[in-house]
Amino acid sequence: MSMTPSSPRGRSIQITALGTVALTIAVLFLILYMPLRWIILNNFTRIETERVQTDIERVRNALDNTLMNVARTTRDYAHWDDTFDYTASADPAYTEGNLDASAFDSLQMDLIIIFDAGGTPLFAQYLSDGALVPVQPEFLRDYGATLQRLPSSTSSITGVVRYAGSPLLIASYPVLNTAEDSPQQGTMVMGRQLNAANLQRIKQTTQLNLDLYSIDASDVPADVASARSQLSAANRAVINPLSSEQIAGYTSFADINGRDTFVVRLIEPRTIFDRAQTALSYTSLALLGTGLILAIVVAVVLRWLVLRRLIQIDSEMEAITAHPEPSARLPISGNDEITRLSTTINTMLDAIVVANSERQQADRDRQQLQNSIIEMQRESLARLSVPLIPITDTVVVMPLIGEIDQSRSERIMNTLLAGINSQRARIAILDITGLEIIDIQVALLIKRLGRAAQLVGAKVALTGMRSEVAQMLLDLEITLENIPTYSTLQQGIRAALAQSSSQLEGSGLRR
User: Which of 166, 377, 395, 423 is the one with CA 20 to 30 A from 75?
Assistant: First the structure.
């Protein structure tokens, strides 16, 4: 059956070739995709981290700006003649007229402390729920000495402190007259609580989603607790992705004594990461599209230039080899590798035909020689299987051995008669000692031999007669008229030699 391009074998070639092309394209896709993915995600992640780092700096700058406002207000009150006079006289009219609850509210201050030149607090009030209450003694104990550590009239202290467990933006300036040419007369301290309202203003200013957590609070989210353990004096900013949709930045603030006070967390949508994923998707689609187009082009070119012709060669070869003596050959067209393959196949077919012809001729010659040898061997075996041995000029002996079939019976008859004539024998001794089986056919053959010998003027004697042979002849009721028998060949030969000088008479040899 000839094979067409749609046969299973043709399809297997195409499937293998197209599978190889597809696998190659897939491997190339992975080789290109993995480094591109790493480059895109790495670069976009770096940009995302830089953006969060910038926003952390914006948060710190916003807090610094708020702190600068606190410092500006504190400096204005500290460098004022009325404050300068108050530190010397401690006149309550100053505080009643300038530092009541409404003044705290208008100044957006939550804490105001005035120390005299000796470090004694003349005024220390905190705004709590719209009313002024004395400043906590532990606050004065923890921060009082630090806030008054102003070595010159131009010195100042700004920073963060903790008050009642919450962060407080604070500023401390020396008390001077309005002209700022007097000696230091005390210390003025003002602080603004970083509460929800103030934090909301910073959120509005920065347009960032901010949360504030105490550095030692226990009820904080897990991500804040993890970031808090990573923050240190040398590392004031930590950036961690929360999910594929959000990323968080963390920064810590130390108080004026150098102790960490609170942590600010800002959460942003991962728009840059989303863009990276989009870019990666487009890149993947572009690579897949390019690979698909390349695979289609390669498959078409491969099928048209290679597979189609290979399948045609395979189909024609199957038709050629279907004949025992193929005479057809592949068509030759073009001058490429497949054409040279067809030429090589045709040359091979020619060589096969020549080799087959030589082999067949050699087989015929070998068969003829074998037949000749067999014929020669058959003739030799025939002569050896029926030997005729002359004892004297008138006596010959024919030993019968093995089994006797129809063809051998005829050969024995021919050999005996031919020997009697050629030897001019008068007595032929048949020795049956070597016969394996003596049946009725053998007995009849012996009788025929006796009659045939008489017709050519000779007598037949039988030697090697055994008791079981004699019993078999009696059972078969076969008589051997005029054929004397002897038990051994030696007896038969002696009797034949004794009688060879006289002419046989009557029944022949005497026993």
Answer: 166
By mean pLDDT, which of 52-66, 85-99, 468-482 is the weakest? 468-482
CATH code, domain with 160: 3.30.450.20
User: Percent helix, strand and coil across the chain, each rounded to 5?
Assistant: 55, 20, 25
Strands lying side by side in the sheet with 427-435: 389-390, 395-402, 427-435, 459-463, 485-486
Q: Which residues contact 167 (CB under 8 A, 6 or more apart)?
A: 160, 161, 193, 194, 212, 214, 253, 261, 262
Per the CB < 8 A criterion, the answer to whether 54 and 251 are in contact is: no
- The model scores a pTM over 0.70: no
Boundary residue ending a domain (170, 199, 228): 199
Paired residues of 116 in beta bridges? 186
- As for how many domains the chain has, the answer is 3
| 83 and 115 share one domain | yes
Give me the amino acid identity at 163: Y
Is 161 among the domain residues?
A: yes
Residue pLDDT, tens place only, 21-64: 788 888 888 888 888 888 888 888 889 889 999 999 998 899 99
CB 331 within 8 A of CB 342: yes
Residue 18 lies in a domain: no
